[in-house]
Design goal:
Shape: globular
Largest sheet: 18 strands, mixed
Structural class: mainly beta
Radius of gyration: 23 Å
Length: 470
C-alpha cells in the first residue's frame, strides 16, 4: 500500500503547509479566534461583518487578516489553510484548493450538509482536540476517489504523528438502537430513533489517521463512530489507520459498510454494540502488536443481553490479521453479550489468544439456536487455539460449533499479511480448501468466488491507503 508521503495527491500539500501548521499552533496559543458572521460588540461592527461576507469562496480582508467565506460564516484563512471551529448550520463545501484545520469540536448540525470534495485534506488540531461531529438530521457528503482520497489526519509533522493526536469522525443518525434515543460518548451528540433507512450522507474513499484523542476522562474516541446511523448512508472504501481506541465502531443502527480497512488500532479493529443490524462485505483488519485488542468485538448490550433490536450483523468476506510477534493482539473474533449474526468467508490468523470465542450464555444460546452462524471460513495459527474460550470457563465447544459449518484450520497462504510497511492480504492456493458461501442476493452484496477480504484479481486496498506509522 502507498505511503502518504509518496502519494502525489497529499505529499505536495503537506510539504507546503507542514511548517506553517507548526507556526499556526504557536499563534493559536496567544489568542487567535475565528470571525463569526453577525457577531460583534456593537451594531456597527455587526453591519460591517455582514457587508463583507460575500458568496461562498470569497476571501475578505478585515483588519489586516484574511477570511474565507464558507456557508454563512467566514473563517480565518492563512496560506491556504482554513481554520474551522464551532458549528456549521447551513450547507457548506470544503474545496480541494485549500487545507482545513479543525480547531476544537466542529459540529455539522441544524440539517446542514457538509460537502467535502475529492483530494481535500483536513487536519485535527492536537492542542484543542480537533474533532468532526455530524449531528442527527445533518449529512456529510465526503466523496473522494481512488486517485484523490479525502484524508483526515493529525496536524503533527510527518515523522511526529502518532495515535490519539486528534478526535476523529462521529456520525449521529436516527436509526434504531436497543438503548432508544441516547447520547454518544464524550458528549458527541444524541442518536437513535425509528428510521432504519435514515441517511447521514456518503463516505467514499476516506482515510482517518492518528485519531482517538481522549475526549473526556477515560473516554478515547474511535476513528469513526457510526452512532444510530441508518441504511440510507453510503459507506465504502474507508481506512482507519493508527487510532488510539477502536478503529470503526457501530452503536446500533442499520448502516452498511463495504471495502473497509483498519490498520494499527490500539483497541479493537471493528466493534459494535447496542443493536447494530447492518451488513458488511470486503473488510480487512491488520493489528500492530505493540498495542491491540480484538479483531472483532461484538456485543449486543452489556446492560441487558436480551435487548432488542439484537446486534445481528450479516458480514461476508473478511480478513482479520493479528500480530504474533507483538506483546498484544488478543482474539480474532470475540462474540458476546447476546450478539447474534452471520459471518461467512472469513480468514482469521495470527492472533495471540484464540481465533473464535463465543462468550456468555446469551450469545451461546444464539449459536445453539441458529441465529449466530460462522461458516465457510479459515482459522489458522492463532496462539492459544483457533477455536475456544481463552478462559475455558463457559463449557461451550467453539471447535465443534465451527467445524460443522464448513470452517477449516488450514494455511490460507496469505501473500504478506504481517508486513506493516507494505502488507499484501491476497490469499494463496491454500484458501481454496474452503468453498465460499454465496452472499444474500440483494443490492448491497456482490457475488464472490473466494474467501477473505480481497481477491487476487481485485486488491482494492492499492493506491489510496497508507501504512505509514509516523
Amino acid at each position: 500500500m502507498l505511503n502518504i508521503g509518496s502519494t502525489p495527491a497529499s505529499s505536495g500539500k503537506r510539504g507546503l503547509f507542514q511548517h506553517w501548521l507548526f507556526l499556526l499552533m504557536t499563534i493559536f496559543t496567544v489568542g487567535l479566534t475565528l470571525a463569526y458572521v453577525g457577531c460583534g460588540s456593537t451594531e456597527e461592527e455587526t453591519e460591517g461583518t455582514e457587508e463583507t461576507l460575500g458568496s461562498e469562496g470569497t476571501i475578505n480582508d478585515i483588519d489586516g487578516k484574511q477570511y474565507l467565506v464558507l456557508g454563512d460564516r467566514q473563517f480565518e484563512f492563512v496560506n491556504n489553510v482554513v481554520v474551522l471551529d464551532g458549528k456549521l448550520k447551513i450547507d457548506t463545501t470544503l474545496s480541494s484548493p485549500y487545507v482545513y484545520l479543525l480547531k476544537g469540536v466542529v459540529f455539522v448540525e441544524g440539517g446542514a450538509t457538509l460537502t467535502i470534495e475529492p483530494g481535500v485534506e483536513i487536519f485535527g488540531e492536537q492542542a484543542s482536540n480537533g474533532t468532526l461531529i455530524v449531528a442527527q438530521g445533518s449529512k456529510i457528503m465526503a466523496e473522494g476517489t481512488a486517485d484523490a482520497p479525502i484524508v483526515m489526519s493529525s496536524d503533527a509533522a510527518i515523522g511526529n504523528r502518532a495515535r490519539g493526536q486528534w478526535g476523529g469522525l462521529i456520525i449521529n443518525g436516527s436509526a434504531p438502537t436497543n438503548q432508544g434515543v441516547t447520547f454518544g460518548e464524550g458528549d458527541t451528540g444524541a442518536f437513535g430513533g425509528n428510521n432504519p433507512t435514515d441517511s447521514s450522507g456518503v463516505l467514499r474513499y476516506v482515510r482517518i489517521e492518528y485519531a482517538g484523542i481522549e475526549f473526556s476522562p477515560d473516554n478515547e474516541l474511535n476513528g469513526i463512530a457510526f452512532q444510530g446511523v441508518g441504511s440510507g448512508t453510503v459507506a465504502e472504501y474507508i481506512q482507519v489507520h493508527m487510532n488510539q481506541d477502536d478503529g470503526i465502531e457501530f452503536f446500533g443502527g442499520t448502516v452498511n459498510l463495504k471495502y473497509a480497512l483498519v490498520t494499527g488500532a490500539r483497541d479493537d479493529s471493528f466493534d459494535w454494540t447496542d443493536g447494530w443490524t447492518g451488513k458488511g462485505q470486503f473488510w480487512i483488519a491488520q493489528q500492530y502488536g505493540d498495542d491491540a485488542d480484538n479483531g472483532f468485538e461484538v456485543d449486543n448490550s452489556s446492560k441487558n443481553n436480551e435487548a432488542t433490536p439484537r446486534s445481528a450483523a450479516t458480514i461476508y468476506n473478511v480478513t482479520l490479521v493479528g500480530d504474533p510477534s507483538g506483546a498484544e493482539s488478543d482474539n480474532g473474533m470475540l462474540i458476546r453479550e447476546g450478539a447474534a449474526g452471520t459471518y461467512a468467508n472469513f480468514i482469521v490468523t495470527g492472533f495471540n489468544k484464540v481465533g473464535l470465542d463465543i462468550d456468555g450464555e446469551s450469545s451461546i444460546a444464539q449459536a445453539e439456536g441458529g441465529d449466530l452462524v460462522v461458516k465457510n471460513s479459515i482459522f489458522f495459527a492463532n496462539g492459544k487455539g483457533n477455536f475456544g474460550d481463552e478462559k475455558d470457563d463457559d463449557g461451550f465447544d467453539e471447535a465443534a460449533f465451527a467445524l460443522k459449518n464448513g470452517n477449516k484450520e488450514t494455511d490460507p497462504g496469505l501473500a504478506d499479511p504481517f508486513n506493516k510497511r507494505a502488507p499484501n492480504f491476497t490469499p494463496g492456493a491454500g484458501a481454496n480448501a474452503v468453498s465460499p458461501a454465496s452472499p444474500p442476493t440483494d443490492v448491497f452484496f456482490e457475488p464472490v468466488n473466494f474467501i477473505g477480504g480481497v481477491s487476487s484479481s481485485n486488491n482494492w486496498t492499492t493506491g489510496w491507503t497508507t501504512s505509514d506509522q509516523n
